[in-house]
Request: fold
Amino acid sequence: MKKIVLRRVLGTLAAAWAAVFFCGASLRVLADCASFGLPFTDLGSESGFCAAIAEAYYTGITNGTSATTFAPKADVTRAQAAAFVTRTLDASLARGSRRAALGQWWTTTPHWDLGLGVTDVGLGPQFLVSDGSDVWVTNHGDSTVTRVRGSDGGVVESWSVSALPFAVLSAMGRIFVSGGGGALFMIDPAQSPNPQQPVAELGGTALELAFDGDKIWSANSTGSVSIVTPGSWDIATKTEGFNYTYGVVFDGHSIWVTDAGDSVIRKLDASGAILQNVAVGEAPAFPVFDGRNLWVPNQSGDSITVVRAADGVVIATLTGNGLNRPLQAAFDGRRIFVTNHSGGLSLFDASTLEPITHTGTAGLGLPVGVCNDGTDFWVAFAASAKIARF
Reply:
């Protein structure tokens, strides 16, 4: 008896849904568009797109052609199409982010003046990286690497290295650190802190490290690029065509290296040979890739050069917004965050290239490195022995 009743119920539901959604080849809705609360009076009662129009309207993708008209059959210009697509992208990024999941919609700075959002680390913190949970910072002044818990900024532990640490990289479940003179260290986060010895010797002090999924790359202050094979720790060091290599970044296809001596960013092949030179501003430093473009801070030019990674075309040179000897850039999925070595932090919209804000860093001297942990930006302040959450 129960089985017969259940079959009847299921059959009735199936028939009801078929009547609701399918009539021949056309899609139908339960009621007319007015039932969605839409203000548009020119939508048919059996439009197959009421739900889609409502979603686009309530998420801000479109506001219609007037306060009461949607013009469902009107042509869309290329300009309008571009606006729809970019609004859709922005909405997707905003609503799909970790910040959205955590309900952290604010964009203001923390109360550094109250000591909030600030963590004491070692002396002379330089650069930092997130492994997804914790933030690792190199302390150049006391030859340590500090592990900071991303959730609350608590210091987890500190590791000592045998040479002054500088660059830091998270890859393959390990933390790689460059030291003075060309040392490369590998920290296993699963092990207890203990003094670290080099696993390899690079072609000079690495100012920045990158990983391409197979090899570790270093930009060396001696004017060279080193390519490290994990495991064997074999190193190939390239010097031809380089002057004063500074930053290195991987865009998913190619390695790019900034050369502060020649004011260019160079695109390299898998062997380290130069494929392309792109002129940027004076003394380019530590760039970031936003999924489409490279953002290159130019220290001496007080500017940022935005380079399209696909073909190396310079699409913009940004000035203002507090840029003052910009040093390193980081990306959080929507925004570009830049540290200024002369003080202050600059924030830009990655999609529109528009400035968002600039904030001073009173009480926290000499901002150097910056990274993002998926929720917050973290900045190392070399003159204050602190890192701070933005």
Summary: Confidence is low (pLDDT under 50) at residues 1-31. Residues 108-389 form a domain with the Methylamine Dehydrogenase; Chain H fold (CATH 2.130.10.10). DSSP finds four helices and 30 strands in the chain.
